[in-house]
Amino acid sequence: MMKTYLLAALSFFLLPFGADAQSVRELPQSATQVQLSYAPLVKRAAPAVVNVYSRRVVKSAASPFSGDPFFGRLFGQGFFGPQERVQQSLGSGVLVRSDGIIVTNNHVVNGADELRVVLADRREFDAELLLSDKQADLAVLKIDTEGEDMPVMPFHEAGEAEVGDLVLAIGNPFGVGQTVTSGIVSALARTDVGASDYTNFIQTDAAINPGNSGGALVGMDGTLLGINTVILSRSGGSNGIGFAIPSAMVARVVDAALNGEEDRVIRPWFGARIQEVDRDLAASLGLDRPQGALVSEIFPDGPADHAGVLRGDVVTHIADHEINSEQGLRFRLATHRVGEMLSLSVIRDGAKKDLSLKTNAAPETPSRNETVLDGTNPLAGAKIANLSPALAEEIRVDEFATGVIILEVAARSPARNSGLRAGDILESIAEMDVKSVEDVRDALDANDGARRWPVSIVRGGKSISAVIRLRS
Question: 124-133 and 138-143 as β-strands: parallel, antiparallel, unpaired?
Answer without folding.
Answer: antiparallel
